[in-house]
Amino acid sequence: MTIAHEIGRILICGFFLAMVVKNMLSWQDNVKMVGQVLPFPRIALAIGFAVEVIGAVLVLFGIQPVAGAIILAGFVVVATVLFLRFWRAPDPMERHYITLLFTNNFAILGGILLLL
């Protein structure tokens, strides 16, 4: 394993763990956002956070890195399709921003797949 691989693994896992902390600090805002797309938003949000933490920890500590990477990849795909529906945004600036986030998520997915 190269230094670049190790740094990439730490950065990707750190990203997911930092997003969990950030999003937990904005719990109510996230409950409202998730509630627009899914039933039982508090439960869905808690499950999403758990999936992110479990996947990141498995990869970060090398416990089951392949399983962790698959979990993170699945999370990214599901979250992207559910919450970044750029094709539904009526405002061109909003559509552009959401499209950027959508494509960024697939770049993150690419990084995760490199962990496999």
Explain the layout of strands and helices.
Blueprint: H1 3-25, H2 27-35, H3 41-60, H4 65-83, H5 92-114
Provide a quick synopsis of the model.
The protein is 81% helix and 0% strand. It has 116 residues and is mainly alpha-helical.
Describe the overall structure.
Helices cover 81% and strands 0% of the residues. The mean pLDDT is 96. It is mainly α. The chain is globular, with a radius of gyration of 15 Å.
Shape: globular
Written as H for each helix and E for each strand, in order along the chain, the element string is HHHHH
| Discrete helix count | 5
What is the percentage of strand-forming residues? Answer: under 5%
Cα separation of the termini: 12 Å
Can you give the helix content as a percent range? over 70%
Helical/strand content category: mainly alpha
Mean pLDDT across the residues is 96
Tally of extended strands? 0
